DNA sequence: CAGGGCGCCGCTCATCTGAGCGCGCCCGTT
DNA sequence: AACGGGCGCGCTCAGATGAGCGGCGCCCTG
């Protein structure tokens, strides 16, 4: 004896339902047409289709063959009310390759999003460099450096050329400068800010319409800024509740800016300016950054995310709780 | 460099499309609602969804976990304009188990289809016996024997009890008789037809509303009738173009009845009577029977099919050409 | 620089569709 | 036999939807 039916209604009903579902979903006929064809009322057809969906006879899947997980991207976007979102399906066990994939994805996103009316701001981060490397085409827009660079020992700092490289691809003007992201005292910072190139760039921050940045967590290896900060300062800032660092801007768990001595010694975009940028695109990877991303998004610092599936899933889980 | 996008439109467009598709197909919102949510025109939403379907971003599948292939059943039903159709997904390398599965499927189908107003006719065939074995419940209807039986050497002929068994399950009257399907001469046949039980059963053939039968091909091992026919007769009938045998009724490739000496010597339903039965349910298996099924269906002898996937696929392929 | 072609967009209007309702049938109960 | 609950069915009517059309801007070409 073999259980043939799935529903309680019997095989003929099942096949009729499948037939109707096929006509409706696959052939795209209207319910009225189907009703006529099968000599049913259109209500009956509607109910059959309803059944077919709820019973799992008809399955609808969203997705496509490729690196980006569109379905997850859409869910992440909706969960946080982001402007855009790209989640790649890359394995996350190799940070460098991950960065490469996310950089490529961001480059494609930028190519698509940037129109000639935009003004592009770039933060200093390895992931942003990866984006620049992958970038092949861009509308002719001005490109503006948003922060000083942090020279990390042993890292090829050709990434200093970031803004110039991207501007070259775009064919637009580059507003860049050579300065560190943080200096030892506020006076030096002020002096640096008065430097012509720095001032030039800074004066245009207000006009930036789209920016690309990384997001750091306030922990070792999770933020370039953290890694160059003194032990005492790290503790102070941790006590102040720093949860995330976005392009040198520090925010607490609610996304509110955290002001400190360090703020005065930074060369770069301020929290208010960053929040004012219509679309800040953040490239983030590593599940250690869940809390940081939550903070940055809640604070309105970040408007779109480019990330990988494990982090995206962790974020969605975190948002539910 | 990684190709991230699938469509030519870029990742943001892709994700937007996925988002819209999710809202529409998964959350069941209306296009107007979605349009408002995403600040698009409802036309744009409709076009996105259209794209999503044609580009394969949204995939709709019909099917269900179980023995019967609903999708294929529906296709077979539509291809031949059948009243009903059940295709099982059983492996086809073991005729006896196949017959068991099809019998069970047919039993379920009958249980579903037969209403108290029906009159059920049964042909003599191993597959019909298998159906009877699996039958557990049936509306209270009269059950009528349509043909004499063919005693095959070495085969347990408890299947002679077929009609009685089914009638017992149904709880209705049984009209059965003990007679062979074919006799040596027309006179004997006529005499047999005058036997009270035979006449009783035959007089009710006209009132049969649903019948179950097998379909045989005119080849060795493909039809019980063929197997008991003399060599000369086989050749004669083959010359007359016999393509199928349904419950003792012989038809040519177009489904037209083939009259011959044999016709006179048969004890059972005639071609005209069979065509007059509103729904003849045929149980068929084995890819050797493609031509036979085509003939039977074209001739209007068979109205619904119970079969297995390989034969079903072969039939659909044959119908296309 | 002008003209023509093409693709995207949103409109109108007729048709389709969903939500909710009431009817009639079936079945088990009193 | 009468009653009552549950279920399947099809109605109404407002809102959703599709087909086809014309407008508009962009790009290519002459």
Question: Notable features of this structure?
Answer:
homodimer; about 325 residues; alpha/beta; Arc Repressor Mutant, subunit A; Rossmann fold; 2 domains; nine-stranded mixed beta sheet; elongated; DNA-binding
Rg of chain A (CA only): 25 Å
**What sort of overall outline of chain A do the alpha carbons produce when their principal axes are compared?**
elongated
Q: CATH topology of the largest domain in chain A, anyone?
A: Rossmann fold
What level of helicity do the residues of chain A show?
40-55%
What is the first-to-last residue Cα distance of chain A?
48 Å
Please provide the ordered H/E string of secondary-structure elements of chain A: HHHEHEHEHEHEHHEHHEEHHEHEH
Q: What can you see in these coordinates?
A:
Two copies of one chain form a homodimer. The longest helix of chain A has 19 residues, at about 95-115. In chain A, helix 2 (about 30-40) crosses helix 3 (about 40-55) and helix 14 crosses helix 15. With about 325 residues, chain A is of the alpha/beta class. Chain A has two domains: about 10-55, Arc Repressor Mutant, subunit A (Orthogonal Bundle), CATH 1.10.10; about 70-320, 3-Layer(aba) Sandwich (Rossmann fold). In chain A, strands 2, 3, 4, 5, 6, 7, 8, 9 and 10 form a nine-stranded mixed beta sheet that branches. The radius of gyration of chain A is 25 Å and the shape is elongated. Chain A has helices spanning about 10-25, 30-40, 40-55, 70-80, 95-115, 125-135, 160-170, 185-195, 195-205, 225, 230-240, 260-265, 270-275, 290-300, 310-320; strands at about 60, 85-90, 120, 145, 175, 210-215, 240-245, 250, 280-285, 305-310. Chain A has 15 helices and ten strands. Chains A and B meet through helix 1, strand 1, helix 4, strand 2 and helix 5 of A and helix 1, strand 1, helix 4, strand 2 and helix 5 of B. Strand 1 of chain A pairs antiparallel with strand 1 of chain B. Chain A binds a DNA duplex (30 and 30 nucleotides) through helix 3.
